């Protein structure tokens, strides 16, 4: 399973946006509330828990991919 590919599908479904790895959530117009909602959907999809301390470090799609890679492997 390619994590980024799955994230792209979820983002398209949930936000209607096409994402790239270098996109920041600010660039995508996703505020902190939207990010929290998005991360909750990601947690459910991948069956992982992203801690609050990790959530504070997520600024871009790539940050999210890196966190998920550590949790899934």
**Oligomerization state of this entry?**
single chain
Low-confidence stretches: none
**Number of structurally distinct domains:** 1
Rg, rounded, reads 11 Å
The CATH homologous superfamily is named ACP-like
Number of helices: 4
CATH topology: Non-ribosomal Peptide Synthetase Peptidyl Carrier Protein, Chain A
What is the CATH architecture descriptor?
Orthogonal Bundle
- Count of beta strands: 0
Instruction: Report the sheet with the most strands, covering strand number, pairing sense and barrel closure.
Output: none
Fraction in helix:
55-70%
Taken from the alpha-carbon principal axes, the silhouette is globular
Q: How much of the polypeptide forms β-strand, as a percent range?
A: under 5%
- Overall mean pLDDT score? 91
What does this structure look like?
By secondary structure, the protein is an all-alpha fold. It has a single domain, classed as ACP-like (Non-ribosomal Peptide Synthetase Peptidyl Carrier Protein, Chain A). Helix content is 60%, strand content 0%. It has four helices and no strands. The protein has helices spanning 3-15, 32-46, 52-55, 61-72. The protein is globular. The mean pLDDT is 91.
Note the topology.
Elements: H1 3-15, H2 32-46, H3 52-55, H4 61-72
Keywords:
single chain, 73 residues, Non-ribosomal Peptide Synthetase Peptidyl Carrier Protein, Chain A, 4 helices, globular
Summary?
This protein is mostly helical and 73 residues long. The protein is 60% helix and 0% strand.
